[in-house]
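Ops channel
N.P.: pipeline sanity check, posting one input/output pair.
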């Protein structure tokens, strides 16, 4: 069933209630949002002849119109292709050509940098322009009848190891994610709000759906992005607020709250994911906000849905393994199976480390026009995540690392995240990425790439590690940097760090 039905349901039962806001101002009620989407979908069909299944790219910063466009695409049976607004024009052009997008909607401030666009596009429309608004003058159309396995979101991976792949997220996948949110992540009530401070092209955009299912308000900050002061100022206006945030964003919120004594009483939940949340940072967040954090582990191939560690688990301080569990990614979400397997796909017993495999209604059917990658990644019905992990006896998953990031030194397996965890407890370490580089004697050598406060040196960090992890795991070299290289999604580019070190023997 078409996920647009979630919004149509709200329009019938709570037409006058707020559905979409820009900062503190209501932009659309549920009735208005559904009507707007119905008209935009009709306008795309009438003006451009757009048919069900055609791809519509969105290259834009967060704005209320972003939510309207996503809904309009679903309403018309089109497949939205949200593209990270931080990508280079050449990366955008490649995605547009690869998916053969028929339309491109772009923020006005991004149009100057679009560059050469492929011939498959029928037009490019600036969001908010007269041409864009003219689409909404069409007579509204009914929701396009849509099969569960119809493409609902073409999600391009970050492409840290080459060209990105287009994960084909279906209406079935999005419904599974929505159901799992209520069981495994958090409850939502009508009138609650989600503030979209993270990119709508990514996780925050996916979480439009569970909040729509509950009749909550979609709030886009006036800045269109993440500003801690702005977010705290919005909280009194939108009590019952949820925020999806990367761990770095959570850390900035904690820092702002401490420095400005900011009131977070109206904050209901912070869902964090997308990168490791280190225990020291989690302790700080609990101290400032209380137990309002929930963790999700997912991938584009199983959107926002593999495991979850809900607020109750975060608050279960009486459990004898409470702090150990805070290091976990939680337990499998209700709509999928998760197991740990060896290189041949055989299930490993609890406590052993292997690749995390996932199967269920949340897992996409494959990659857009890439049967080879589809066969390699999910050909046997199980999604091979590329992540290494282990289950404990209670079913909690502990992610060790990406399989390609595992360091084997002197025949011993070393998981970079474990070393990073130890270093990040040092008060002078701001960011760290641990990698392995070739070593003639040991096979690989552990190197820590560190962003640290002035005065923090190698000997101090070496002693810090020796007090916390096994000697063989500690870094043999430290590379001090002003910043770690990251891609457009904020993920650390370990391959670039490896390239720097291997290209400069003096640093080895």
């Amino acid at each position: 069933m078409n996920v647009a039905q979630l919004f149509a349901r709200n329009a019938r039962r709570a037409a006058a209630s707020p559905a979409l806001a820009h900062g503190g101002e209501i932009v659309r009620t549920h009735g208005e949002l559904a009507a707007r989407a119905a008209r935009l979908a009709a306008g795309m069909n009438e003006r451009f002849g757009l048919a069900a299944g055609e791809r519509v790219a969105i290259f834009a910063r967060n704005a209320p119109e972003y939510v309207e466009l996503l809904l309009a695409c679903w309403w018309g049976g089109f497949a939205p292709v949200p593209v990270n607004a931080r990508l280079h024009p050449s990366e955008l052009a490649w995605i547009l050509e690869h998916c053969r997008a028929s339309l491109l909607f772009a923020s006005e401030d991004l149009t100057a940098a679009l560059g050469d666009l492929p011939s498959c596009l029928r037009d490019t429309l600036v969001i908010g322009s007269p041409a864009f608004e003219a689409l909404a003058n069409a007579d509204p159309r009914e929701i396009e009848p849509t099969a569960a396995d119809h493409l609902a979101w073409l999600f391009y991976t970050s492409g840290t190891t080459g060209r990105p792949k287009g994960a084909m997220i279906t209406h079935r996948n999005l419904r599974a994610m929505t159901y799992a949110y209520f069981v495994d992540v958090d409850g939502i009530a009508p009138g609650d709000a989600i503030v979209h401070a993270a990119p709508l092209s990514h996780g925050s955009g996916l979480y439009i759906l569970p909040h729509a299912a509950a009749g909550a308000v979609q709030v886009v900050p006036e800045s269109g992005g993440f500003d801690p002061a702005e977010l705290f100022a919005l909280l009194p206006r939108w009590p019952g607020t949820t925020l999806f945030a990367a761990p770095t964003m959570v850390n900035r919120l904690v820092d702002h709250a401490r420095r400005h004594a900011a009131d977070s009483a109206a904050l209901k939940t912070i869902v964090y994911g997308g990168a490791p949340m280190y225990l020291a940072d989690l302790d700080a967040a609990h101290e400032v906000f209380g137990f309002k954090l929930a963790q999700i582990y997912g991938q584009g191939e199983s959107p926002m849905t593999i495991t979850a560690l809900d607020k109750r688990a975060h608050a279960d301080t009486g459990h004898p393994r409470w702090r150990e569990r805070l290091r976990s990614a939680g337990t499998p979400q209700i709509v999928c199976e998760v197991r740990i397997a060896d290189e041949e796909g055989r299930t490993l017993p609890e406590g052993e480390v292997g690749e995390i495999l996932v199967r269920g209604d949340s897992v996409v059917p494959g990659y857009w026009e890439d049967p080879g990658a589809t066969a390699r990644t999910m050909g046997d019905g199980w999604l091979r995540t590329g992540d290494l992990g282990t289950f404990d006896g209670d079913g909690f998953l502990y992610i060790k690392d990406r399989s390609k990031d595992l360091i084997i030194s002197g025949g011993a397996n070393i998981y970079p995240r474990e070393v990073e965890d130890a270093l990040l407890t040092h008060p002078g370490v701001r960011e760290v990425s641990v990698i392995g580089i070739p070593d003639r004697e040991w096979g690989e050598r552990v190197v820590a790439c560190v962003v640290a406060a002035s005065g923090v040196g190698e000997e101090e960090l070496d002693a810090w590690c020796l007090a916390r992890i096994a000697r063989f795991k500690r870094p043999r070299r430290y590379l001090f940097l002003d910043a770690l290289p990251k891609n457009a999604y904020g993920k650390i580019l370990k391959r670039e760090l490896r390239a720097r070190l291997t290209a400069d023997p003096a640093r080895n």
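N.P.: looks fine end to end. The longest strand covers residues 429-439.
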